[in-house]
Design goal:
Length: 461
């Protein structure tokens, strides 16, 4: 049964003329989608209005085989939410109450990211193609293909493939430079850029060299060497030495966090690598933890949090620790016996740390039933910066990947393959959108699910 309660609009994105020319030049074809309601042609876009379904109150878009469940009213004035549902990218606009289907046909979308100025949205298609749309989901277009480091620079330029791109206010995309060789990461405030120099020229024969971690104050600025290490290769022994793997540049010039990959092992990173901090050029790296990947949440005034603990299994040996960049010392957040903690997220003002707790289990399989049972045991907790005792947020069973709003009042998280919103920490959570993955196809690596590639939230300050 359908009722007319302030219907949410579901529409296909508007295409700029430039997009049509690009598609024609590349001889791209698009499959026309069937319509289940009245179709109105407006400026080249198809606008399809669905009435809100009963059972969830006004402003609820019911889930079907071709669209996700969305509670539009609950997200009203919440900014913009880009999320992937069953491989398709959608944008929910909390100001216009529109739900926009961004990706097309058989495209498999992932990793949406809003630009710093909030005007643009990038996402991956079929793992390697970088696409761009307006933050509303309109005017999607292909940008480039390629791997390597990528994302938005603090000044609004886009690093994608091998190029550096600018986007004008009218949506003109221009490649303005080649990404500097060795770029590894940059700080959120744009104050530091980190580069890894190549350690070996060739592995065709025995060779040796020096790998360097270099830092500059701008993308093309003069680089200063912060760390050097010897690496080598022989046909008999293979690669040897501590190869630089990944890094995080802390804001306000507080330091660099990084990891080595011993002998470029294909296996060791999966079980965790030592995490080091550097505070100045030529300083001795200080080990501050052991992490699988770089699960780091940046706080305020030189603080950050990590998920400490090795082992590739998601459900063992993980604990959140709060750290001081100045002292390079981390302190575990208290949890009950037998409980893990992970997924740290500092509030924008650095006064509250959200994280997830869950019990340790001994499962050695990754069947969907196992994943769902363990993820259902998660819960959301909050630690006040001035306190040593965290508190559980009621009603957040199954929580993962907490994300704060820009004003620090609300939290969005994943639970039961859906996005949930806590308008305030004392309010009842509301399910906003579902599902994220194709049902019964939660993709994991030893139980670890990369929920962050499924959504991005552009909230109001």
């Amino acid at each position: 049964m359908l009722i007319d309660h302030e219907p949410a609009a579901v529409r296909e994105p508007v295409l700029d003329d430039a997009d049509a020319l690009i598609r024609q030049a590349r001889r791209r074809t698009r499959r026309r989608r069937g319509r289940i309601a009245v179709v109105v042609l407006l400026v080249g876009a198809c606008v399809l209005g669905f009435f809100a379904a009963t059972g969830g109150g006004g402003g609820v878009v019911a889930e079907t085989a071709s669209r996700p469940f969305v509670d539009v009213r609950a997200f009203s004035h919440g900014g913009a939410l880009a999320f992937v549902s069953r491989g398709q990218l959608w944008v929910l606009d909390g100001d216009t109450n529109e739900l926009v289907h961004v990706s097309r046909g058989s495209q498999r979308a992932a990793d949406p990211q809003f630009s710093p100025n909030g005007r643009w949205l990038t996402y991956l298609v079929d793992s390697s193609q970088v696409w761009l749309a307006r933050s509303s989901g309109a005017s999607p277009r292909y940008v480039t293909t390629g791997g390597g480091v990528g994302g938005w620079l603090p000044d609004g330029r886009l690093v994608a493939g091998s190029g550096l791109w600018t986007i004008s206010s009218t949506g003109i995309v221009a490649r303005v430079a080649t990404v500097p060789r060795g770029l590894a990461t940059w700080s959120p405030d744009g104050g530091r850029y980190v580069f890894f120099s190549a350690g070996l020229g060739s592995t065709a024969k025995a060779s040796s060299g020096t790998q360097r971690l270099e830092v500059a104050s701008s993308l093309s600025g003069k680089r200063t060497t912060w760390y050097t290490g010897k690496v080598s290769f022989t046909p008999q022994s293979g690669l040897q030495g501590d190869f630089l793997l990944d890094a995080v540049a802390l804001p306000a010039r507080e330091g660099i966090l990084f990891q080595f990959d011993p002998d470029q092992s294909a296996d060791l990173p999966a079980d965790g690598l030592e995490l080091y901090e550097l505070r100045a050029p030529a300083a001795r790296p200080k080990q501050i933890g052991l992490t699988v990947g770089l699960p780091i949440a940046i706080g305020a005034h030189g603080t950050f949090a990590i998920t400490n603990g090795g082992n590739r299994y998601a459900w063992v040996t993980k604990s959140v620790e709060t750290c001081s960049a100045a002292s390079a010392v981390c302190t575990p957040v208290p949890t009950a016996h037998g409980e893990l903690s992970f997924d740290p997220a500092w509030s924008p003002n650095g006064k509250q740390l959200a994280f997830v707790e869950a019990p340790t289990i001994t499962a050695t399989n990754f069947f969907q039933a196992t994943l769902k049972r363990w993820y259902a045991t998660h819960s959301l907790w909050i630690l006040q910066r001035a306190s040593t005792t965290p508190s559980e947020i009621n009603g957040t069973g199954g929580a993962s990947t907490p994300t704060w709003s820009a004003n620090g009042k609300s939290v969005m998280y994943v639970a039961n393959d859906a996005l949930w919103l806590l308008p305030t920490l004392s309010s009842k959570p509301v399910r906003i959108a579902a599902p994220l993955f194709t049902p019964n196809n939660w993709q994991s690596f030893f139980g670890e699910i990369n929920w962050t590639d499924q959504f991005a939230w552009l909230s109001h300050p």
